[in-house]
């Protein structure tokens, strides 16, 4: 990412102070931790925010009272006299004018309120002011295209005036697919999000527990939105007692692209991720699934498994519950390669589409235009860490300080 390590570390600590906590370990997560270590995911690195190979207890956004903290909590650092937050406002497009050497210059943002009225927020000082786009891996390339910055042929086909022909907008987008094994438990299991993670170079192993499977895999823990849910006609409708363990690719090689469906900013774009197109991704997933199988088969997990259920039984059960739009093959429960391909889930760690060096420079300024930066996961070449949210929040603070320092130098 080309960041200053000292400022990056300061920014991580700035984020951690408000939104990161040490989780309270449960019986399941303790057994899961021991299972990972017995399965060979070593060493044990204890509780740490650092990304280290082995098994660790990671930070959580849930405090000791069970309250979840989000990026909105970082507003406690803000000076309310110098910031305006607009709620229920949907950005429609970025506005450009011609600048020097006929380079487009961003000067404002058009947005719609909850009553569908259109407004424009203008930069107060066009000589130093900037528009900073932070709509994420899906929203940022979408808004750039809607604003006329993107592949010219694609924009023209939708009747969008081309401000800058930038063919790499929307390209290189990727997702980290996860393959899971569901484990029904004969005894009650506490509700937990990811607390313990096994970190390998090509995959991460994570676990969640105590959730209704319908909610867990179609809502906000592991979800595939309209592309993958649990079958609501099957037996998964009862409140689930147990958990799941998943292997997520750390650096998927397969990449895809994003395109607009139409000119409506409130419609989702069309995204093709090309999951498992590259053989290296299949190999990494299979290794992750093998680690899951070894961890489940350890002594520590015995009390959380029905004695008559083998690991293969659990894989077959999991395959029977997951429904998605991917082609299914008869051997998806006997071939780990096919299981990975057919039953892939997303955990919402999309990235790319406005990558550094292709769409933005190392200062996160959009190439070919002035007064516009993109600062979010769309600039990543890979999703950092087991969960990218810490890095995304760090990057926001980092760039805020960086821009302030740049302006102070200009004023000297």
TrEMBL record:
Q: Which InterPro entries match?
A: FAD/NAD-bd_sf (IPR036188), GMC_Oxidoreductase-Related (IPR051871), GMC_OxRdtase_N (IPR000172), GMC_OxRtase_C (IPR007867)
* Keyword line: Signal
Which Gene3D superfamilies does this one have?
Answer: 3.30.410.40, FAD/NAD(P)-binding domain (3.50.50.60)
**SUPFAM superfamilies recorded:** FAD-linked reductases, C-terminal domain (SSF54373), FAD/NAD(P)-binding domain (SSF51905)
User: Sorted alphabetically, which Pfam families does this protein's record hold?
Assistant: GMC_oxred_C, GMC_oxred_N
- Name the domain of life this protein comes from: Eukaryota
Domain named Glucose-methanol-choline oxidoreductase N-terminal: which ranges?
136-150
Q: Recorded GO terms, molecular function?
A: flavin adenine dinucleotide binding; oxidoreductase activity, acting on CH-OH group of donors
Q: Could you tell me what this protein is called?
A: Protein HOTHEAD isoform X1
- Origin species: Canna indica (Indian-shot)
Per the UniProt record, the lineage of the source organism begins with: Eukaryota, Viridiplantae, Streptophyta, Embryophyta, Tracheophyta
């Amino acid at each position: 990412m080309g960041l200053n390590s000292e400022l990056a570390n300061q920014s991580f600590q700035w984020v951690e102070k408000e939104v990161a906590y040490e989780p309270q370990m449960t019986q399941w997560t303790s057994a899961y931790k021991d299972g990972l270590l017995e399965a060979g995911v070593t060493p044990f690195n204890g509780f740490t925010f650092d990304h280290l190979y082995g098994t660790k207890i990671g930070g959580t956004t849930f405090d000791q009272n069970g309250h979840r903290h989000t990026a909105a909590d970082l507003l406690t650092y803000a000076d309310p006299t110098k910031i305006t937050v607009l709620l229920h406002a949907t950005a429609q497009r970025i506005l450009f004018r011609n600048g020097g050497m006929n380079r487009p210059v961003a000067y404002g943002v058009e947005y719609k309120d909850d009553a569908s009225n259109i407004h424009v927020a203008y930069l107060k000082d066009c000589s130093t002011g900037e528009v900073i786009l932070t709509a994420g891996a899906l929203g940022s390339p979408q808004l750039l295209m809607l604003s006329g910055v993107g592949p010219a042929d694609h924009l023209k086909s939708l009747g969008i005036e081309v401000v800058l022909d930038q063919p790499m907008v929307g390209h290189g987008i990727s997702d980290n697919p996860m393959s899971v094994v569901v484990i029904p438990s004969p005894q009650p299991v506490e509700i937990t999000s990811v607390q313990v993670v096994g970190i390998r170079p090509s995959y991460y192993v994570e676990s969640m527990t105590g959730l209704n499977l319908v909610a867990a895999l179609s809502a906000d823990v592991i979800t595939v939105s309209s592309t993958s849910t649990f079958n609501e006609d099957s037996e998964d409708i009862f409140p689930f007692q147990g958990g799941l363990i998943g292997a997520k690719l750390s650096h998927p090689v397969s990449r895809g692209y994003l395109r607009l469906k139409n000119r409506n900013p409130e419609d989702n774009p069309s995204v093709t991720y090309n999951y498992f197109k590259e053989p290296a991704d299949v190999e990494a997933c299979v290794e992750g699934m093998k680690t899951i199988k070894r961890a489940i088969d350890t002594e520590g997990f015995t009390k959380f498994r029905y004695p008559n259920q083998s690991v293969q039984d659990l894989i077959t059960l999991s395959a029977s519950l997951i429904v998605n739009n991917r082609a299914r093959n008869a051997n998806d429960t006997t071939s780990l390669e096919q299981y990975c391909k057919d039953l892939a889930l997303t955990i919402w760690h999309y990235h790319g589409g406005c990558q550094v060096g292709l769409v933005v420079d190392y200062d996160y300024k959009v190439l070919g235009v002035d007064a516009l930066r993109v600062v979010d996961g769309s600039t990543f070449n890979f999703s950092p860490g087991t969960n990218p949210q810490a890095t995304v929040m760090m990057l926001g603070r980092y760039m805020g300080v960086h821009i302030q320092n740049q302006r102070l130098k200009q004023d000297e």
